[in-house]
UniProtKB/TrEMBL annotation:
PANTHER family: TRANSCRIPTIONAL REGULATORY PROTEIN DCUR-RELATED (PTHR45526:SF1), TRANSCRIPTIONAL REGULATORY PROTEIN DPIA (PTHR45526). The modification 4-aspartylphosphate is found at residue 53. InterPro entries: 2C-system_Tx_regulators (IPR051271), CheY-like_superfamily (IPR011006), Sig_transdc_resp-reg_receiver (IPR001789), YcbB (IPR013972). Keywords: Phosphoprotein. Transmembrane segments: none annotated. PROSITE patterns: RESPONSE_REGULATORY. GO terms for molecular function: phosphorelay response regulator activity. This is Transcriptional regulatory protein glnL.
Amino acid sequence: MNFYIIDDDPAIPLVLQQILEKEAANTVVGIAHTAQQALHDLLFMHVDIVLIDLLLPDLSGINLVQQLKARNDQSRFIMISQVRDADLRAEAYQAGIEFFIDKPINVIEVKMVVEKVAQSIQMTRQLTDIQSLVDGHLPAQPLPVNPHQDEKDRILSILKILGISSEAGSADILSVCQLMLDQQLSFREIDFHQAYHITDHEKKIMFQRIRRAIKVGLTNFAHLCMDNMGDEIIVERANLLFEYKNVRNEMLYLEGTRQTGGKTSLQHFFDGLVQT
């Protein structure tokens, strides 16, 4: 199952990710701290289950679910909350959530709720296939919501190797890669204002998130290179994503023999990531 987590408390998604990804079949494909970021990310992602905080800084979790449902989002929704107001909970269920998970997070409750929703998803898929047989058709093969899902899964695995799959900018990175794949664009050719309907200020914030994530990835990759000196595959990947000279400079910085680390280039990173 693919999961997406939305909570303005940075600690909550990390805790949930640790719980969810203990199951090999589960992957947290994105994390957001605002409703606006989630609305943007979920346009480009195939997600089975979305976990949403009830109280977000820019929009209530209930309103967010309503907006996602209005654009025919097929994900299932679980709400996270420390609020136990009966009217609010009734409103959330009416908006389309499946279950509540109470804060503070309880591992057993999370596993139980997620398992129930996952079973419901599987049952729905099986019933769809059975109905297709009754109607005289072959079992419906789920059409790929994302025609480049294999490429995207590969990119996500690279982000995990870099240790940045849970960074705030990882969802932005996946979204940009999706756009590049869908429209066969290089990074330089993307019109971010038109593609994402964002202002210059919002683009700047988005790029800041991405740059922070890529810098963390460069540092982690430099550590990986230090532990695997001479590995040709790692050197090749370093060239594709960062240019090896920058990885080398980061290694020297980490060793204390250089005052500044390696530099990162958004264009080089994205073009390399999409073609790896």
